[in-house]
Specification:
This protein has about 250 residues and is α/β, with parallel strands linked by helices. The chain folds into 2 domains: about 120 residues, D-Maltodextrin-Binding Protein, domain 2 (3-Layer(aba) Sandwich), CATH 3.40.190.10; about 100 residues, Periplasmic binding protein-like II (D-Maltodextrin-Binding Protein, domain 2, 3-Layer(aba) Sandwich). About 35% of the residues lie in helices and about 25% in strands. The protein is built from 8 helices and 10 strands. Helix 4 links the parallel strand 6 and strand 7. It is globular, with a radius of gyration of 21 Å. This is Transporter substrate-binding domain-containing protein.
Length: about 250
């Protein structure tokens, strides 16, 4: 009888003993090179982090709008990872609210327009219609937008924003350098005839934002990214998107 009970307990518990902990990667980036029909850097990142955990974690990707992401992160109990992020975008310049990884690669927001612009700061955009993306903040422009010096006209996604630029419904948009490189390689017709300012809007680090509610996960991420920095296959994936070339 005792052996039968023990056997039943083993059957019940065995799936739980070896179960991987599911970690959601919440990404606002629904466009290449980060995401395209289940592929892209975010999917590659999830696969790599899963493989290197040796079945301890299973990383899955969920694409959500920035507003939903912000609302979710207001909960003190939220769990997960936000990829390709920067502390200044989440009001965490002091890096005290969340746990931040090391830099994955450097990126920049390029100034793209349908007429040449000599971009030298917000004043260069006065009187122009800026194509923004819903939920995104352009902190250094907010005062001028509120004053009506720059007209902000939002779209739900980068692809919609680019279409508005091509049809001259807006004058200028910001596109990440990483996305511009991908567009040049995969969809050059979508940017044909557009102008790229010599000076980018800004430069920034892309990092992983990690919930502070899972310190063991944060330790794993830190250790694993250190290993990935020496992984030639991973570095090859991101090298082309790094602003200014390889780190």
């Amino acid at each position: 009888m005792m052996k039968s009970v023990l056997f039943l307990l083993c059957l019940i518990l065995s799936p739980l003993i070896g179960a991987s902990e599911k970690i959601t990667i919440y990404s606002q980036y629904d466009y290449p090179p980060f995401w395209s029909e289940g592929h892209g850097l975010t999917a590659d990142l999830a696969q790599k982090l899963t493989e290197l955990s040796q079945d301890k974690y299973q990383f899955v990707v969920e694409i959500i709008p920035r507003k939903r992401l912000d609302a979710m992160m207001q909960s003190p109990k939220w769990q997960g990872i936000v990829p390709w992020a920067n502390p200044s975008w989440f009001g965490d310049e002091q890096q005290s609210r969340f746990i931040w990884s090391s830099t994955l690669f450097m990126d920049a927001d390029l100034v793209v327009s349908n007429q040449p612009i000599n971009f030298a700061g917000p004043e260069s955009l006065y009187g122009k219609r800026l194509g923004g993306i819903l939920g995104h903040r352009y902190i250094e422009l907010e005062q001028d937008i509120a004053a009506g010096k720059i007209i902000r006209d939002d779209a739900p996604s980068q692809s919609n924003n680019l279409k508005k630029l091509m049809t001259q419904r807006v004058d200028v948009v910001f596109i990440p350098h990483s996305s511009w490189i991908d567009l040049q390689q995969t969809a050059p017709e979508s940017i044909k005839g557009l102008f790229l300012a010599a000076t980018p809007r800004n430069r920034y680090e892309r990092r992983l934002l990690i919930s502070p509610n899972n310190p063991a996960l944060a330790q794993y991420i830190s250790k694993t990214l250190e290993s990935m920095s020496r992984d030639s296959s991973w570095q090859y994936k991101i090298k082309a998107y790094n602003f200014g070339g390889a780190k």
